[in-house]
Amino acid sequence: MTVPPDFVHASRDLERFLLDARDQLSHATTHQTWQSVFAVIVTFRARLTVPQVIAFAQALPPLLGAMVLLDWDPSVEPKPFASRAELAREAMAFRGDHSILPESGIADVAAALWRNVDRRGFERLLETLPTEARDFWAVP
Fold first, then answer.
1. Is residue 37 within 8 Å of 21, Cβ to Cβ?
2. Is the pLDDT of residue 29 over 90?
3. Domains of the chain (ranges plus CATH)?
4. What pLDDT is attached to residue 96?
5. Do 11 and 63 meet the contact criterion of CB atoms below 8 Å apart?
6. What sign does the CA torsion over 91, 97, 99, 102 have?
7. Residue 44 burial by Cβ neighbours in a 10 Å radius (0-12, 13-18, 19+)
8. Sequence-ordered alpha helix ranges (H) in the chain
9. What is the pLDDT of residues 80-128, one digit of tens each?
C-alpha cells in the first residue's frame, strides 16, 4: 500500500493553511498564527464530546487534525456553547497577555479553514454536530 497523499503532503498543507490564516488574521508570522488558530480550536474543542472531537480531527487534514488533539484532556466534560462574542473572548484570553487574536479571530480562522479542507467531508462532519458547532465554523 502506498502512503496516502494527505500524509505525503501534510507539512505542505499545514504551511499553506497557516499562510492563508496568517493573511486572514493580519498576523506578521505563522508562529503568531499557530497560537491564534490553536486558541480557536481549543475553544471549539472544549464544547465537544470525545467522539465528536475525534470525528472533527479526522475531518481535517492530518496535521490540523493532530492540532485538535494536542494537549487535549478527554476526561474534561464539554462546556456548553455560548454566544459568538463570549466564545471570541474565551479564545482571545487563551494565552492571556500573549494573545493577538482579533475579535474576528473565530470567523477569520473559519474562513481559512474552509479554504483548506475537503469541503464536502467537512460539511458532512458538521451535519453530525449540534447546530451551535456548525454556527461556530460559519463564515459571515
1. yes
2. yes
3. 5-134 (1.10.490.110)
4. 81
5. yes
6. positive
7. buried
8. 5-8, 10-25, 30-45, 50-58, 62-69, 84-92, 105-115, 119-127, 131-136
9. 999 999 999 999 999 887 779 999 999 999 999 999 999 999 999 999 9
